[in-house]
Amino acid sequence: MCIRDILLYRVGQRSGRLFNASLQESGLRLRHYALLRFLATSEGAPQRELSARLGYDPSAIVGLVDDLEKLGFAERRPSPDDRRSRIVVLTGSGRAYLRDTDEACLRVTNELLAPLEQPERETLHALLTRIANLGPG
Q: What is the tens place of the pLDDT at every residue in 26-43?
C-alpha cells in the first residue's frame, strides 16, 4: 500500500470515528446517515439502487433500511412505476432528524478540516468529489 492510500484510509477512519461519535446518542451510525442523506436528495429508490449508489452490500442495505423504518425515518412504499416493486423513501421524521444533525455534522467537518484554510477546504472538496465520481462540486 502506498503512502497516499494510507493517508486516504486514515482520513476516512478519523472522519468516520468523529461522525459516529456525534451520532452515538441517536444510536445511528455514519452508514445510516449516508442513506438518509441520499434519500433526502431523491423521491425514493429501490434497495438495489441504494446499494449501488452508496457502495454498500445489498444485505447491509436491508438492515439499514430496517433500522431506519423502526425509528420512523424511512419507509418502504410501492413504486409509482411498478406496483410489484417497493422503494425506500425518507419520512418527515427522517427530514427532521437530518435538520437536527446538521449542526453536529458541521462541527465534525470543522474539526476534521481545522488544519486547512477556507480555499484549501474548497479545493479538497472539489478533488474528493471528482475522486468519488459524484460529479461537479
A: 889 999 999 999 999 988
Coil, strand or helix: which one is 46? Answer: coil
- Is residue 23 domain-resident? yes
- Report the CATH number at residue 7: 1.10.10.10
Distance from C-alpha of 73 to C-alpha of 57, rounded to nearest angstrom: 21
What's the domain range around 77?
A: 3-131
Helix residue spans in the chain (DSSP H): 3-23, 30-40, 47-54, 58-71, 92-112, 118-131
Amino acid identity for residue 95 in this structure? R
Residue 137: pLDDT over 50: no
- The cell for 116 is 486547512
User: Which pTM was predicted?
Assistant: 0.80
| CA-closest candidate to residue 107, choices 23, 46, 43 | 23
